[in-house]
Amino acid sequence: MSNPTQKPSLENTQLKDIVAHAKEYGFVFPSSEIYDGLQAVYDYGPNGVELKNNLKQLWWRAMTQLNQNVVGIDAAIFMHPLTWKASGHIDGFSDPMIDNLDSKKRYRADVLLEEKAAHYENVGDKVRADMLLADMGRLLTAEDLTGVRQLIIDEKIACPVSGTANWTEVRQFNLMFSTQVGSVEGDSTLIYLRPETAQGIFVNFLNVQKSARMKIPFGIAQIGKAFRNEIVARQFIFRMREFEQMEMQFFVRPGTEMEWYQQWKETRLRWHEALGLPAEKLRFHDHDKLAHYANAAVDIEFEFPFGFKEIEGIHSRTDFDLTQHQALSRKKQQFFDNDLDENGKAYGNYVPFVVETSVGADRLFLATLCQAYTEETITEGEGEQQQTKTRTVLRLHPALAPVKAAIFPLVRKDGLPEKATEIFDELRHDFRLVYEERDAIGKRYTRQDLIGTPFCIAVDHQTLEDNTITVRHRDLREQTRMPISELRNYIGEAVSFKRIFEKL
């Protein structure tokens, strides 16, 4: 990560290339682009929605299918407004905001300081980085916003746009979007778009526990949209105002939460590595300032082109949420545990503690895209015809690729299109495929490389004679001749989620 007072041209170029690729090849579009877009809001295109759905389905199955004690729900976006009173969002869901008077740009004060600390760490001064983060954490915990502003000034942090340090006071900015329910304005009720998905799980704790006959420890998983009126929404889809979370709240016996916290930390890190994110680009980052509900918190960070940033949080939330909802709703949120303790006595009724794992689906999408995007120099042809060129390819895990295989007739005649269509029809119920017969086959291969398709199947004249085809592999560009009858198993084995689950 770079000094916030400088513009990291190489990193910016890297991200710009990925953003341009995402738009050109149908992964992510600016929302409402024909009206010049809406800041920090994006739409997923034909290939993007397939990749994102694959990531979500993989997470869902890893949680609910591989863990017998985790079940799922899908809670509503709108919730009773007292939900957010109990959770602390109405009174305390805010970020420290600061403006530069010259550029008129707004920033999160804590992000400016974190980026400065990351700069110190990158230049080898970890001691200074740790001291800065500790000072920031102390000031934010004490809600000393004047001290936060002074720390920014003392660190000589300037606005990246104006280059000046002409800062306003730091003030808190509530991040919740509000709206009204009711047909008549005067009689309407103020409600909020949920800023997180976790509360939908907590208010359904007893419903799920009883209906699914779950016993502590158990988890409730959910994938859903959340909405935050971010002060600074930037870095493409990394920080948006409308985003999707994949969360699991794991309910445990009080006193065991730290054991489960450690276990879920390790489990979740392995999951990201199994997806194809390399270990050297992943790290844990313990929170310097704990949220009001937590007694431990850590982020799993991925090294994006703009530095290490969070893609998942693991938090020990104690019994804060259920206790708060119990107090405000006046409905008990307790579990009767008839297991025996070391003295042979039943644990009885208690409010469970909670360990949370929360993945940003959009951030995971971006991390996957950044890791897969590859520009490499390749050699084509032989002898005097040999030439080198740059190839762009998305090295997505086959299980995540938007398209699993592309089917190409070598030419548009001699019965080859008909045979290729026959193969397409035979396999399309099992895999997402594309059929294409336009342009030279080399150009067709290139298009599929650009969207990450792992296999291209060429139908040629020999196919009509012996029912064999050529399978071209994306990463090594090698070709394998095989019978059509083996295709289903060959592709199915490569693109199965099982290949990822095996690594867990």
TrEMBL record:
It holds the Pfam family tRNA-synt_2b. GO terms for cellular component: cytoplasm; extracellular exosome; microvesicle. GO terms for molecular function: ATP binding; bis(5'-nucleosyl)-tetraphosphatase (asymmetrical) activity; glycine-tRNA ligase activity. It catalyses: tRNA(Gly) + glycine + ATP = glycyl-tRNA(Gly) + AMP + diphosphate. Homodimer. Catalyzes the attachment of glycine to tRNA(Gly). Belongs to the class-II aminoacyl-tRNA synthetase family. This is Glycine--tRNA ligase. It comes from Hymenobacter roseosalivarius DSM 11622.
